[in-house]
Amino acid sequence: MLAVENLHSGYGRIQALHGIDVEVRQGEIVTLIGANGAGKTTLLMTICGAPRASKGRVLLDGQDITQMPMHQIARLGLAHSPEGRRIFGRMSVLENLQMGAVAGDPAHYAEDLDKVLGLFPRLRERLNQRGGTLSGGEQQMLAIGRALMSRPRVLLLDEPSLGLAPLVVRHIFDLIRQINQDQGMTVFLVEQNAHHALKLAHRGYVLVNGRVTLAGTGAELLANPEIRAHYLEGG
Ligand code: ATP
Which of 69, 107, 205, 228 is the most core-located residue (most Cβ within 10 A)? Predict the structure, then answer.
């Protein structure tokens, strides 16, 4: 469904990605794990169109989206919940969700809002509260809910566990599993929290300095001694 082929990208002279190949099939949760600065965020952002790839391709259902404008990529069904959540702090929860619906079909708005609020009852209780006053976990729910409002075909999640307490992380990961199982949502999850991500994902990739060094099923990677030593110590 989503295919990344030999993708190169970076910021001016700084090259962050050196030929990435990743595939996410329909209905899968695929994770990309890697240390700080490995290039995880850059990969998600390049898939969404900024920064632009300097080489290689991104295909969505076989269609080349590499050089498309960002809004068009969003309309084709890629929704991105960015690192650090980036919710609109002064807007209400409802207004944040409405922003997410901009890339979607207005005819689906009421139904999609109901679905998202069904998934995140905490947001329903706080619809008129300003986004900036939510807890970290609630802000993460809002960021994911906002991405779902466009009824995407692939949901891209950038470090949803960042800065959250362990119990809250577990809850967020349970919700991601639920979105995948109940709605058949295809998910590409970028995470530093390798333990949780690999337990959740059907398949995973390991990114080191802008290159994929390992790939396998979630269970294979969890059992891999190299991964255990580098990413799972104490996990
Ligand atoms: P983190 O978990 O810390 O966000 P990451 O794996 O997502 O790490 P990236 O943020 O993609 O990594 O960074 C990859 C490389 O690109 C790093 O060397 C980083 O310093 C560099 N980089 C990231 N953003 C920029 C930018 N806006 N301008 C210049 N270089 C950048």
Answer: 205
Q: pLDDT of 27-42, one tens digit each?
A: 999 999 998 899 999 9
Order of all β-strands in the sheet with 63-64: 14-24, 2-11, 55-60, 63-64
CA atoms within a 13 Å half-sphere pointing along the CA-CB vector of 206: 21
> Which mutation among 20, 42, 162 tests ligand 1's pocket best, with the greatest number of atoms within 8 A of CB?
42
By most ligand atoms within 8 Å of CB, the mutation choice from 7, 13, 14, 22 for ligand 1 is 14
Pairing of strands 154-158, 78-81: parallel
What distance in Å separates the CA atoms of residue 210 and residue 39, rounded to the nearest whole number?
A: 5
> Token pair for residue 69?
């404008």
CB 202 within 8 A of CB 176: no
ipTM higher than threshold 0.85:
yes
Extract the runs of DSSP E, i.e. beta strands, from the chain.
2-11, 14-24, 29-34, 55-60, 63-64, 78-81, 154-158, 186-191, 203-208, 211-217
Ligand 1 center to 50 CA (angstroms):
13
